[in-house]
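Cross-posting from the modeling subforum.

Setting up a comparison between two proteins and wanted a second pair of eyes on the formatting. Protein 1 (sequence, then structure tokens):
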Amino acid sequence: MKQLIILTIVAVALIGIVVFLYTRNSGEVPTLSPTSTPLPTVLGSKVTVTYSDSGYGPATVTVKKGDTVVFDNKGSKMMWTASAVHPTHKAYPDSDIAKCETPSQAGIFDACRGYGPGELWEFKFNEQGTWKYHNHLQPSHIGTIIVE
């Protein structure tokens, strides 16, 4: 019983601190509701590219060296994001479809498999340049990542 009372006191104190910090700067307590504005697609060093039945969007994304691009499949079909050029996937340095299913797979710009609707695949870009990519399962769906 004592532990429950202590936990309740700690929880109330933490809530009070959070409310104090928010109201100190803005004068009002923020509220979250189902209609709140969604988070932006840029979160620190991550940028989201959405895949739909019509392709990748935005079609061109600019990131900094070391940033991660998250490919989010919002379409109804499989997405297999990979470096250009179809079917070898060798445009991004050291990438090659032949490296799928090998220990080298972690470092290549190639998902190496299809990702279904609602699934994500991400890749960290460590090489500066302009990198074209495509959906291996729908090669006409293309995009470009510019790494500065």
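Protein 2 (same layout):
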Amino acid sequence: MGKNRTPTAILDAKGAFEKNPNRQRNAEPTTDQSIGNPPSYLSKDEKKIWKELVKQSLPGVLKYSDRAAFELLIRLTSTMRTDYATMRVADKSLFVSLCSRFALTPADRSKVNVEQPRKSNLQAFLTRKAS
């Protein structure tokens, strides 16, 4: 079985398209809608986990269309925290896989380049070296 395809948002955050701009996926469907608030039917603890993991995620990675997979990650996180002893190996593996897909593991985070804020013209002028 082949390797899972890395989401474009993660590749873009990693700076992959700066090195290889010809590999950009211009026709990929996308949304500007953020993942939003947790669904009302989640438990109080699951809603807390949702908000916690949204805060931990990298900017621009979680989108509204990711809600179903993200909900599964939330439910697995809840099970892991409340009843770890009964979690099956397959569930633990799925948990790690979902964390990886949302760039929530140290290895995945280390691959992401965060763009530094650009200096305004005024800042550039004020911090330039006198010659």
